[in-house]
């Protein structure tokens, strides 16, 4: 949560000797908050800055942004969406359009709109990210780190929205960002690794979309059926609708100006690949290589237990799973879960549990049924984790619920039956990556 530098639009009340002293204290507290995410120092700092400069000063809004970002890691998405809506409205009314604090607030506001619920929210998020990317592109140019951040967030929103055309655009944007960041920041910069991780995840989504599994699929009890169930993509077709998986499917989210979008992409490096026409195994192989490279780099730079390292290890495990290696994938996911219980990394709730359930179902089931039984336990844990964080109508919740129902149908077809996890009846009621601009000593979160 390192603060952005002072912007051209900084308000006069933030200047002078008092403003300089306060900005230095803000820098110190935010750096400490990075190492020990305790909101109390930020609460105290916010009160002090508001008292000295006023609650609408750029510095006060910067501290409030970092405080709410920290709180949003653990509270419900519904509550976070409400907070960011209110903070965005206040900041937009008083800050200059070039103010970096306003840019950061806009990004978090759009993120929680995207995570809040159904298709209308995802439409709004895609449009919001596109508008912000265009705004930064016009002001700062394609090579600026804040334009890169907005561009990558736009790719994530398109990818998570679903639809063949959106996914094609997401692949293209992710490749453009990798090329830009390698040129500007180099291959050994953490900002470049973020773009490579986004590309790897997008390629895996494309690989899963190539072999969709519908919610009403009847699963025979054999190895091929468990593999098919394990290959179900996140944000399932049950949540997105049937048109999200076909080449000819229309998408509800379209660019505001398709011609303008194409023209603006002329300012980026040429992307020759058309990823959605490539064989599935090529997409998985490239994603696995990208994830492995970023995993090795983050282990060396940040350590094996850092949150960023654990996140990319889950992407690596996902690639192993789609590449036909469910047992190594399960081993990696178990390690991430055990490490996360110890260090409390900021992982997407339910993500590792759902991946582990998929890996267990893809592995050869044990004769005593323990593999399927554990998969059911992990699927249930994923549902509960996502219900605890996301609104009931959110795609993340629908994905986990859909997967658990399908897994239970599969378990019920076992000749010997699969034991129901203790305390459950088996009845079921019915997704930047956050991206960080590369400012020393660490890129500030956006």
Q: Would you give an account of this structure?
A:
The protein is mainly alpha-helical. The protein has a domain at 1-116: Serine Threonine Protein Phosphatase 5, Tetratricopeptide repeat. Helix content is 65%, strand content 0%. The chain is globular and about 75 Å long.
Give structural attributes.
Serine Threonine Protein Phosphatase 5, Tetratricopeptide repeat; single chain; globular; 446 residues; disordered C terminus; 18 helices; mainly alpha
Task: Provide a compact summary of the structure.
The chain has helices spanning about 15-35, 40-55, 60-70, 75-95, 100-115, 120-140, 145-160, 165-185, 190-210, 225-230, 235-240, 260-265, 280-300, 305-320, 325-345, 350-360, 370-390, 395-410.
């Amino acid at each position: 949560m390192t603060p952005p530098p002072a912007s051209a639009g900084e308000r006069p009340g933030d200047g002078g000797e008092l403003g300089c002293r306060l900005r230095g204290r803000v820098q110190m507290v935010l750096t400490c908050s990075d190492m020990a995410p305790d909101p109390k120092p930020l609460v105290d700092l916010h009160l002090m800055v508001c008292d000295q400069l006023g609650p609408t000063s750029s510095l006060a809004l910067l501290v409030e942004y970092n405080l709410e970002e920290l709180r949003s890691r653990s509270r419900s998405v519904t509550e976070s969406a409400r907070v960011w809506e209110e903070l965005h409205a206040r900041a937009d009314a008083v800050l200059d359009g070039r103010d970096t604090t306003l840019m950061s607030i806009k990004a978090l506001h759009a993120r929680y709109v995207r995570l809040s619920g159904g298709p209308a929210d995802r439409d709004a998020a895609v449009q919001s990210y596109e508008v912000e990317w265009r705004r930064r592109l016009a002001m700062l140019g394609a090579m600026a780190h804040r334009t890169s951040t907005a561009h990558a967030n736009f790719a994530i929103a398109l990818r998570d929205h679903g639809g063949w055309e959106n996914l094609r655009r997401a692949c293209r944007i992710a490749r453009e960002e990798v090329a830009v960041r390698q040129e500007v920041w180099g291959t050994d910069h953490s900002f470049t690794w973020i773009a490579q991780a986004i590309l790897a995840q997008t390629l895996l989504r494309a690989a899963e979309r190539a072999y969709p599994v519908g919610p009403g699929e009847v699963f025979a009890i054999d190895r091929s059926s468990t593999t098919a169930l394990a290959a179900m993509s996140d944000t399932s077709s049950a949540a997105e609708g049937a048109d999200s998986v076909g080449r000819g499917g229309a998408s509800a989210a379209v660019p505001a100006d398709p011609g303008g979008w194409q023209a603006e992409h002329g300012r980026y490096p040429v992307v020759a690949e058309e990823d959605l026409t490539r064989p599935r195994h090529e997409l998985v192989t490239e994603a696995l290589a990208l994830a492995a490279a970023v995993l090795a780099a983050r282990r060396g730079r940040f350590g094996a237990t850092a949150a960023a390292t654990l996140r990319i290890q889950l992407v690596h495990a996902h690639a192993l799973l789609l590449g036909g290696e469910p047992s190594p994938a399960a081993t990696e996911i178990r390690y991430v879960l055990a490490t996360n219980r110890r260090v409390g990394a900021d992982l997407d709730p339910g993500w590792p549990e759902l991946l582990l359930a998929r890996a267990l179902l893809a592995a050869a089931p044990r004769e005593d049924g323990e593999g399927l039984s554990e998969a059911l336990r992990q699927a249930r844990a994923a549902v509960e984790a996502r219900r605890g964080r996301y609104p009931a109508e959110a795609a993340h919740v629908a994905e986990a619920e859909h997967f658990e129902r399908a897994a239970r149908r599969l378990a019920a077809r076992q000749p010997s039956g699969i034991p129901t996890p203790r305390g459950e009846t088996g009845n079921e009621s019915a997704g930047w990556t956050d991206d960080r601009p590369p400012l020393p000593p660490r890129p500030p979160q956006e």
